[in-house]
C-alpha cells in the first residue's frame, strides 16, 4: 500500500467516523423531556415522543438506504443531503415557535435524515473487507466515537436545557462542518473481489433476524432509562434536573471502555458476546430498580446500574451489526445493516408504548416498576441468545467462507470456499 493510499484510507475513515459523531444527537433533547411536558401541557410519557418520534422515520429511511445506497444511489450525495436536513430540521424548533404536534412532525423529519446517516455509516464500515476481526475492530472504533457524541450531546443538552426546553436544539449546529469533511474525503465502497460478490445465497438468512429482534427488544427495555430519567430523578429524589445530563451521560460513557475491548471479547466469545451483553444489561436494569424507591433513591446505586446497563447496551450496539454481517452474504451487507438500524429505532418506537402499557398495571405514577419488568425481559433475551449463539457460530463459516477459510485466495483456498458454498446451497 502506498503512502497516498494510506492517507486516503485514513481520510475516508475520518469522514465515516464523523457520521457516528452526529447520529447520537437525539440525546440532546433527553434532559428537556420534563420541561417539554410542562411547556406543552402533556404527560411525561407523551413528552418522550420528542426523543422517540425520530425513530418512526428512521425505520423506513434505514431500510430504504440499505436497499438503495451503493446499488442505485451513491453514498456521498446521499450522505451530504441527509447531513443538510439533519442540521436544518434539528435547529428549526429553536428558531420557530411550534405546537406539540408540529414539534413532533419536525422531529420525524430529523429522524429520516439521521436514519440515512446511521445506515450509511454502518454499511461503509461493514463493506470494508478485512474479515471478521477487522470488521469488529472498525465497529468498535466507530462506537467509541458514537459514545463520545452521546456523552457530549447529553452534557450539552443538560446545560442548554437550563435556559429553555428548546435551547438544546441549537446543538445540531455541530453538523455544519461535516459536509466539508464528507465532500472531500468520503469514498464510494470498492466492488467485491472477483468471485466473492455472490458467495452464499442472496437475501437475509432467517438466523440473522434473531440478533436483530433481540436488539430491538433490548433497546425497547433500556431506552426508558434515558427518556424518563428527568421524571425518575424527581420521583426518587436523586438530584436537581440540571444534573440529569451529567448522570445520564454515564449510560453511554461506558462505551469508551467497552468499545475498545470489544474486538478481543468478540474473538474469544464469538456470537455469545451478545448473550453476555444482555446479561450485564439486565443486571444494570435490576440495580436501577433497586436504586429508585419514591423519595428515597440512592444516587450511588443508580450510577452503578447505569454503568452496567450502558456496558450491556454498548456490547449489543457493536455486536449486532458485527454478528449480522457475518451471517449474510456480502451482496446483502447493506440491506442487513439497514435492518439493524431499523431494529435500533423500532426498539425506540416501542419503548413509549411499552412504558404506557406496563406502568398503568401497577396502579402508580412511579416509573420505577418499569425497570423491573425490563430487567426480567432482558434476562429472557439473554437466554434466547445463548441458545441460538452456538448455531450462529457454525453458520458464520458457511455464509462467508471467503473470509474464514485460510488461504482463500490461493487455488486450494478457493476450492475449499467452493466446497463450502456448495454445502451452503444444500442447507
Could you explain how this protein is built, in words?
With 427 residues, this protein is mainly alpha-helical. It has helices at 3-22, 33-40, 44-47, 49-68, 75-95, 100-127, 131-160, 178-185, 206-227, 229-236, 244-248, 250-253, 255-269, 272-291, 299-327, 333-358, 368-399, 401-404, 411-426. α5 runs antiparallel to α6 (100-127) and α9 (206-227) packs across α16. Residues 194-201 and 397-427 have low confidence and may be disordered.
Shape, principal axes of CA atoms? globular
Number of separate helices: 19
The biggest beta sheet is recorded as:
none
| Helix-strand makeup class | mainly alpha
Number of strands: 0
Calculate the terminal CA-CA distance, rounded to whole Å. Answer: 39 Å
**Rg computed from alpha carbons, rounded to a whole number of angstroms:** 21 Å
**Which range does the strand content fall in?**
under 5%
Q: What is the H/E order?
A: HHHHHHHHHHHHHHHHHHH
Provide the helix percentage: over 70%
Can you tag this structure with a few keywords?
single chain, 427 residues, mainly alpha, 19 helices, 0% strand, globular
Amino acid at each position: 500500500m502506498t503512502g497516498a493510499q494510506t492517507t486516503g484510507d485514513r481520510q475516508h475513515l475520518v469522514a465515516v467516523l464523523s457520521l457516528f459523531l452526529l447520529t447520537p444527537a437525539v440525546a440532546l433533547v433527553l434532559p428537556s423531556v420534563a420541561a417539554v411536558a410542562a411547556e406543552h401541557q402533556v404527560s411525561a410519557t407523551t413528552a418522550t415522543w420528542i426523543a422517540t418520534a425520530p425513530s418512526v422515520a428512521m425505520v423506513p429511511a434505514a431500510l430504504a438506504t440499505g436497499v438503495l445506497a451503493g446499488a442505485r444511489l451513491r453514498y456521498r450525495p446521499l450522505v451530504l443531503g441527509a447531513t443538510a436536513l439533519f442540521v436544518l430540521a434539528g435547529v428549526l424548533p429553536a428558531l420557530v415557535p411550534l405546537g406539540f404536534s408540529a414539534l413532533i412532525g419536525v422531529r420525524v423529519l430529523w429522524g429520516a435524515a439521521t436514519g440515512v446517516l446511521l445506515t450509511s455509516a454502518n454499511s461503509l464500515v461493514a463493506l470494508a473487507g478485512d474479515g471478521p476481526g477487522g470488521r469488529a475492530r472498525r465497529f468498535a472504533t466507530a462506537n467509541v466515537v458514537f459514545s463520545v457524541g452521546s456523552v457530549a450531546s447529553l452534557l450539552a443538552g443538560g446545560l442548554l436545557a437550563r435556559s429553555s426546553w428548546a435551547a438544546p436544539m441549537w446543538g445540531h449546529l455541530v453538523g455544519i462542518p461535516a459536509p466539508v469533511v464528507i465532500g472531500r474525503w468520503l469514498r464510494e465502497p470498492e466492488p467485491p473481489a472477483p468471485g466473492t460478490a455472490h458467495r452464499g445465497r442472496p437475501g437475509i438468512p432467517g438466523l440473522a433476524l434473531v440478533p436483530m429482534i433481540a436488539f430491538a427488544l433490548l433497546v425497547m427495555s433500556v431506552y426508558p432509562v434515558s427518556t424518563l430519567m428527568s421524571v425518575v430523578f424527581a420521583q426518587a429524589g436523586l438530584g436537581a434536573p440540571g444534573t440529569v445530563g451529567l448522570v445520564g451521560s454515564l449510560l453511554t460513557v461506558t462505551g469508551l471502555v467497552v468499545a475498545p475491548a470489544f474486538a478481543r471479547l468478540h474473538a474469544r466469545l464469538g456470537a455469545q458476546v451478545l448473550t453476555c451483553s444482555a446479561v450485564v444489561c439486565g443486571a444494570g436494569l435490576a440495580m436501577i430498580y433497586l436504586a429508585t424507591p419514591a423519595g428515597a433513591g440512592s444516587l450511588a446505586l443508580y450510577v452503578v446500574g447505569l454503568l452496567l446497563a450502558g456496558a450491556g447496551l454498548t456490547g449489543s450496539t457493536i455486536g449486532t451489526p458485527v454478528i449480522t454481517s457475518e451471517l449474510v452474504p456480502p451482496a446483502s451487507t447493506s440491506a442487513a445493516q439497514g435492518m439493524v438500524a431499523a431494529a435500533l429505532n423500532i426498539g425506540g418506537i416501542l419503548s413509549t408504548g411499552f412504558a404506557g402499557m406496563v406502568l398503568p398495571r401497577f396502579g402508580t405514577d412511579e416509573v420505577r416498576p418499569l425497570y423491573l419488568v425490563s430487567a426480567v425481559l432482558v434476562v429472557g433475551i439473554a437466554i434466547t441468545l445463548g441458545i441460538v449463539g452456538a448455531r450462529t457460530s457454525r453458520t458464520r463459516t458457511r455464509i462467508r467462507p471467503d473470509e474464514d477459510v485460510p488461504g482463500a485466495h490461493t487455488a486450494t483456498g478457493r476450492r475449499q470456499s467452493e466446497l463450502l458454498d456448495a454445502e451452503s446451497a444444500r442447507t
